[in-house]
Every structure is written in C-alpha cells, then in structure tokens.
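Recap for those who missed Tuesday's class. We walked through two folding examples back to back. For each one, the amino acid string is listed first and its predicted structure tokens come directly after. Nothing is annotated here on purpose, so try labeling regions yourself before you check the end of the notes.
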Amino acid sequence: MNKQYDRAYFDKWYRDKTHRVGTAQTLARKVAMAVAMCEHYIGRPIRNVLDVGCGEGAWFKPLKALRPDAAYLGLDPSEYVVSRWGRRRNLRQATFGQLAQLRFDERFDLVVCADVLHYVKTAELKRGLGGIVDQLEGLAYLEVYTSDDQLVGDMDGFQRRTAQWYRQVFAEAGLQGVGSYGWVGPRQAPWVTAMESASR
C-alpha cells in the first residue's frame, strides 16, 4: 500500500507530542538560517520562495514573519494538504519528479526542499533536481538525511543513501554545496569563494 500523506499522517508527525521530532522554535531558526544564507548570496532581501514537498506549508508562517513581502509557493503531492491549506498558504499539488516539466513565470531566490529527498526514489529525484537548478536564482536549501545519520521519526519509505551519493548527484545536476544544507546553482557558483564551498 502506498504511503498516505493525509490528515492522520500530519497529526502524528507534526502535532502528536509522542511522535513529532521538531518544534516551532526549531523551524523558525531553520527558516532564518536559510533566508540569511540566501540573501548573502543574492545580495538583497528575498522576493520569492518555492517550497517543494511543503507538506502543510509549515515554512509559510515563519517566512512571512521574517519577510512579509516575499511571495511563497508550496508544492506537495498530498490531496489533503492542497484542499485544506492550498488557498490560505498558496499550495499546489505536484510531485518532486514533476519539477522536470513545471516552470513558473520567474526564477526563485530560495528553493526549499526540507525532509523530503530521502523519501524520493532515485529516478524521480534525478528528474526533479534538474527543474530545481533551472528555476534557482539564489540558494537551494536541501535538508536531506542519509544512511550515515542517527535518525528518529518516520522511517517508512526512507531511502538509505550515503552523504557522498547525494553530493555526487547534486553536483551532477549543477549544484555546489555551501554548507548547512545550502546549495547554489550555476548563477551564483562563480561568486562562491574556496572556503565558502563545501564541495571543493
């Protein structure tokens, strides 16, 4: 049976105190870090954010608290998420792999894909990465966990891949690591100094 990202799933992993692995404070710090890193590379406040595999759009509120004028677009395959939160948080239904074909009116300063890629099958992951790189203006925040990490939480469908595997696949897609889950694409890479880079 396929994994269901329905209300019961989000209630369990995001609201049930016995299962959830993050807090609102942890998320706010993560969002602040990603925004600061992005703005460092683009040299101005962010104007827009694409959140891939956004779930219920958890990044929406802390992002708006930091940058009220930044446009936010969330993509998620869950019918529940889009029907429940789509209009209020600007969420649309799409899988990670569909990024290979999906294009929008402008590129995104910040692309977020948090706690998603380690559940995506290899062929779909490689397809979707090309879309991220093509639509990336500034920084991609790709929070991914590996077989090298000690993990708690939802392990159903977890793809056991090494950190080296991800680094190679990201590099082949045209991404350069700058640390703390941050990756820049070809538009920003020429300005990354040797000691900023986590890939050299």
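Example two. Treat it independently of the first, because the proteins are unrelated.
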Amino acid sequence: MIGSDGEMVGVLSRDEALSLAQEEGLDLVEIQPHGDPPVCRIMDFGKYMFDLQKKANAAKKKQKQVEIKEVKFRPVTDSGDYAIKMRKMREFLEEGDKIKVNIRFRGREMRHQELGREMAEKIERDLGDDIVIESRPRFEGRQMVMMIAPKKKQ
C-alpha cells in the first residue's frame, strides 16, 4: 500500500487500509489489481479525476484540426483571378490547412486537357518548395483534381 504522501506504507489487510484512508478523509484506490499482493493508494479520487480531465482538455486545446479548403480554377483563368487565388492558397497553407485544387472543364475545353495540366504545373511551381503534393492531378469526370498539403516544419 502507498500512503497519501507517496511513501510506501507496507502490506496491510483490506480493513486496515480502509480505516487508514478514512482517518485521513481520503479514498482507497486500487492501482494494480493483478499484482501479488494488489497495490492500493490513499488519495482524493475526485481531485485525481478532475486533474486528469483538466490535462485532457489542455491537450485537446493545443490540437489543430486540419481542414481541406477547395480552390476552383478553369483552364482559362485570367492572371488577376489566378493571383488572388494563389494568395488565398498561401494563406491556407500558412494556417496548416490542406488544399483541394479543382480545375473544371466546360464544353470544348475537354479537348484541351493539356491546358489543365499546364495550369496544375504552374500552381505547383508558384507555390514553391513549402508544399507537398499528396495526389497528382487526375481526372474525375469533367474536372482535374489535385491535393496539396503544407510541408511539415521541423
């Protein structure tokens, strides 16, 4: 048995351990039930559970939920719109979010898929070395899809 101060008390019967815990106004908690003999500790169990909950909440607060942001392009997206979308993509990457780049083809644009590939390569070039391409550009129906993630910082 372990006392409330963390010191080893010794091997006691169950009744002796319970009476010792009641004298101190604390709880007798079984720490290692499968040990021979089982190990118990005198502690304030409510305070212990409160501290565990507080630690769990603090760890949860520090986590960042990664979101997937979607940015849509067309093969004929003009340079002004392209610059604005690139600026937004850099902001998303700085926040640690992933980006789904969507290049949509309409009508006869499907015959010029090389324009979409060039657009995807240009996006990759312009974002530079601070990205990881999770999935290369691939077709899903009438749109080309590419996934980009920020590079992990050491």
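Answers for example two:
The chain has a mean pLDDT of 88.
The longest strand covers residues 131-140.
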